[in-house]
Amino acid sequence: MADPAWAGGAFGSAGRCVLAPNASPMTLDGTNTWVLRAPGSQRSVVIDPGPPDAGHLDAVAEAGGDVAAVLLTHHHLDHSEAARAFAERVGCGVRALDPAYRLGSEGLGEGDVVAVDDLEIHVVATPGHTADSLSFVIPSERAVLTGDTVLGRGTTVVAHPDGRLGAYLESLDRLHALASAHEIATIWPGHGPVIESALPVLDHYLAHRRERLDQVRDALRTLHASARDGVPLDHDTIPHRIVEIVYADVDPVLWPAAELSVQAQLDYLRA
Predict the structure, then answer these.
(1) What domains lie within the chain, and their CATH numbers?
(2) Tens digit of pLDDT for each residue in 124-140?
(3) Are 229 and 210 in contact (CB under 8 A)?
(4) 3-state secondary structure string, the chain?
(5) Other C-beta atoms lying within 10 Å of the C-beta of residue 199
């Protein structure tokens, strides 16, 4: 599951990843908490403080120093749960797309620019993994922080009902366009190691989604053919039966997440 070589660290001239100790099949090595600071600046921005682990938050506070703002890529607890307590500890606000996860009056959305000294963070809406997913482009680094939209290893789950595959594909297209225009070169993800070359990985993500959709279509045809041959087809069990066909080579511990992903794919195919 985990690559022992990945433990966070410094990247570019502005980034430091503090890895949270919450490794699991769904979180890979753990949540990447990012501390961003312009060279020579005393102030920083913290992205996704992660889980409420005291040792982790101490490490983030030490790396962050004078924290000007906490930003959230999305609301999932492995990214957001400690955000309010950490922000109160360091004396700043929490900015997020979803108002329920903010601390203070400032929100966060498409087109916003968060500027702290010489550091600029450009906000790009990338819904799909969740409705409130955001990515953060750092022009000075030609890097993008993607949260769970693109992972450092493997592919992300687009889980029904909050996850919407159509929106996710559009978000991948948007990131692909930024990479094709050379506005981003590297990906600093919410889980797993840094991706040094963004474009090939985004190509892979798009191809993977097309392949999975083809597999789901084929599985549906197989199930309907079996029903015509006298095997009853219970529509409530279709997502699980598709998982058994399409995700047969995946660890069964991940099948519940795969079933939610299949439901999102079926919604997309019905649209």
Answers:
(1) 9-198 (3.60.15.10), 208-270 (no CATH)
(2) 999 999 999 999 999 99
(3) no
(4) CCCCCCCCEEECCCEEEEECCCCECCCECCEEEEEECCCCCCEEEEECCCCCCHHHHHHHHHHHCEEEEEECCCCCHHHHCCHHHHHHHHCCCEECCCHHHCECCCCCCCCCEEEECCEEEEEEECCCCCCCCEEEEECCCCEEECCCCCCCCCCCCCCCCCCCHHHHHHHHHHHHHHHHCCCCCEEECCECCCECCHHHHHHHHHHHHHHHHHHHHHHHHHHHHHHHCCCCCCHHHHHHHHHHHHCCCCCHHHHHHHHHHHHHHHHHHHC
(5) 17
HEC string of 76-127 equals: CHHHHCCHHHHHHHHCCCEECCCHHHCECCCCCCCCCEEEECCEEEEEEECC
Instruction: Give ∠ CA 203-205-207 in degrees, rounded to 5.
Output: 70
Could you count the other beta carbons within 10 Å of the beta carbon of residue 259?
19
Residue 10 bridge partners (DSSP): 16
Nearest Cα residue to 190 out of 146, 129, 154, 158:
146
Pick the closest to residue 157 from 94, 243, 238 (CA basis).
Answer: 243
pLDDT (tens digit per residue) in 194-249: 999 999 999 999 999 999 999 999 999 988 887 766 666 777 889 999 999 999 98
Residue 96 tokens, joined: 């997020």
